[in-house]
Structure formats: structure tokens, C-alpha cells
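Teaching assistant's notes for section 4

Start the section by putting this record on the projector. Ask students to predict, before seeing the second block, whether Sugar ABC transporter permease will look compact or extended. Collect guesses on the board.
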Amino acid sequence: MEKTIKRYWPVFLIPTMAAFVIGFIVPFAEGIYLSFCKFTTIRDAEFVGLQNYIDAFKDATFPDAFKFTTLFAIVTLVLINVLAFLVALALTQKIKGTNIFRTIFFMPNLIGGIVLGYVWQLIFDAIFSKFDTALKLNEVLGFWGLVILVCWQQIGYMMIVYIAGLQAIPEDIQEAAMIDGANRTQRLFRVTIPNMMPSITICTFLTITNSFKLFDQNLALTGGEPLHKTEMLALNIYETFYGRVGYEGVGQAKAVIFFILVVVIGLIQLKLTRSKEVQQ
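Reveal the predicted structure now:
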């Protein structure tokens, strides 16, 4: 088998590499080039240098979207990971029906973001109509509506990762801590959480990147209303590119800035959490 694989590896590698280059590398490189151009289609692109980036930073909605997205990412990072860890901790205890509960908690993650957005919009509007208001009329309600939606969708997925991490902790360590007289709280903070750092790294990374990349839920639930105050970065880029005539290059420049931002934040987070793994 090994000889066959070594002989025919190009048959398996070349199609995959070709698909990756055609589907990702080429469009990505072309997107970077177009961010320095003024265009309506890729055939009439005219190089304008850094003007698109200057216009992107001059657009008042862009820094506002960044602030809103950052606040949203921080809140959801804490809520999703804390709640997912607590649920995972509860469902790894010896209680009946844990498999059923795991399935129920995970199911929202299988529903598309657009569908979730419209469903939760109907739920929120039905509630807020009794108070003579609506989700799209109030910035604070829109923010917490998005937080609730995303938490409801993603907690189940992060729960699965945390359950895998909890089950990977050797029982000998827990037993040794019990013999030494450690109570539940001490075992949680001195044994369980330190040994869960790889899972925490994964869940933290996924939560942060998903929060910054959030688009379909934002589009369906609030649409950026009122007056772009609940507009996140991905939706702001979409509205710039498709909603403003002649701003396609600016939208593309925003997309490049957005990409760099997500990569930098993701790398910083990975470095911080992985350093904790090494220390443990």
C-alpha cells in the first residue's frame, strides 16, 4: 500500500492542489489587486492606488461596524464558552439521558443562519410588539438579539468540543486530587480547567472568528437597523460593495482590511491560549 501511494501520489495531490489554487489562491490574489482599483466589473478595473483604503477609513460606518463587532465578539466569547463549558460539565456526569440532551443542544447548529435570523426576528417582534417597539428600532435590543441568537446556535457545538476535552482527562488525576483532599471547586480550577486548555484554545478561536465573520444572522435579524447601528463588519462590506454604485473598490478594500484584522486577532488569541497550554 505504501509503495502504491508513493508511486501514484500525484494522482491524489494534483487535483486537490488545482482546486485549491483555482478556487482560493487565484480569487484571493485578484481580490487584493482589485482593492487598489476602481471598477464595476473585473474587466474595467482602473488602478487608483491607496485611494480605496483611504475612502474605506473615511467611511464613518466602517469604524462604527468595527466597534459594534468587537463588543459583540467579546460578549459572545465569554457567554458561549462559559455556558458551553458548564453544559459539557453537567452532561459528563453520570445522569440519565445525557445523549438525548447532547443531541438537543447540538441541533441548533445544524440550522442555517438566514433561517435562524428570520425565525428569531419573528419571536422577538412578537415579544417587543407588546411594548410598542421592535428589534430594528432599538440598537440595544438589536445587539442583545444577535447575542441570544448566536449563543443559542453555537453553544451546542462548543459543548461537543468541551465534552471531548473532559473525557480525555485521565481519571487518575482526578482521583489523586480527591485523595489529597481537594474539593470540587479546587479540582475544577486546579485540575480540570488546566487540562482543558487545548479545548479552550479551539473553542476560543472558533468563537472569535465566527463572531467577526458573522453575516447571515446579522442580515436576517436586524439588517443593520436602525441606521447601520447594528451593522457588523461583514454586512458593512456587503452593503458597501453591492449597495453603493461606484464603491465596489472601496468594498473590496474593506474586505482586505477585514481579512487582515481577523487573521491578526486569531493569531494573537492562539498565541495567548497556547502559551497557557505550555505552562500547564
